[in-house]
């Protein structure tokens, strides 16, 4: 059986959809980290069946907007002295910038490459976002 030790101080990104752990690991550039990190994939979970987990043996800044957009069911556990001191539940962000690109070929962001891609949450239930410039739709779920 695989054993991953607990961490004394750091962050545990938990309840990640199976397979998304690698994308988060890459986005956070954890492969270049000087601190110990662990990406645990396809772990059994009573709550969701299977999940990925990332353990980081230090406190780092996280992009909550990106993480919430990618998987709003992620939980961030802050660890101090081997115990969880804070638990942050993510949700779909109300607005996102430069995470996705508009698919509308007529959108100004498709023509002008230096414009920030901005989207606002149109439906949290459906995970639907709309482009702030052309109202083009993007589904995150």
UniProtKB/TrEMBL annotation:
Residue intervals of the Aspartate carbamoyltransferase regulatory subunit N-terminal domain: 2-90
Family matches, as SUPFAM superfamilies: Aspartate carbamoyltransferase, Regulatory-chain, C-terminal domain, Aspartate carbamoyltransferase, Regulatory-chain, N-terminal domain
Span of domain Aspartate carbamoyltransferase regulatory subunit C-terminal: 95-139
Keyword Metal-binding: yes
Single Gene Ontology MF annotation: metal ion binding
Biological processes annotated in GO: 'de novo' pyrimidine nucleobase biosynthetic process; pyrimidine nucleotide biosynthetic process
Keywords in alphabetical order: Metal-binding, Pyrimidine biosynthesis, Zinc
Name of a matching Pfam family: PyrI_C
GO cellular component: aspartate carbamoyltransferase complex
UniProt-listed NCBIfam families: PRK00893.1-3
PANTHER family: ASPARTATE CARBAMOYLTRANSFERASE REGULATORY CHAIN (PTHR35805)
Protein name stated in the entry: Aspartate carbamoyltransferase regulatory subunit
């Amino acid at each position: 059986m695989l054993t991953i030790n607990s961490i004394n101080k750091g962050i545990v990104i938990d309840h990640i959809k199976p397979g998304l752990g690698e994308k988060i690991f890459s986005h956070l550039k954890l492969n270049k980290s000087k601190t110990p990190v662990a990406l645990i994939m396809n772990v059994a979970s009573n709550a969701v069946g299977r999940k990925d987990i990332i353990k980081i043996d230090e406190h780092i800044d996280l992009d909550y907007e990106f993480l919430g957009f990618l998987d709003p069911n992620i939980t961030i556990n802050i660890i101090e002295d081997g115990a969880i001191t804070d638990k942050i539940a993510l949700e779909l962000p109300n607005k996102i910038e430069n995470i996705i690109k508009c698919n509308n070929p007529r959108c100004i962001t498709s023509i002008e490459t230096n414009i920030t891609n901005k989207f606002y949450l149109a439906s949290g239930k459906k995970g639907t976002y709309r482009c702030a410039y052309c109202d083009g739709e993007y589904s995150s779920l």
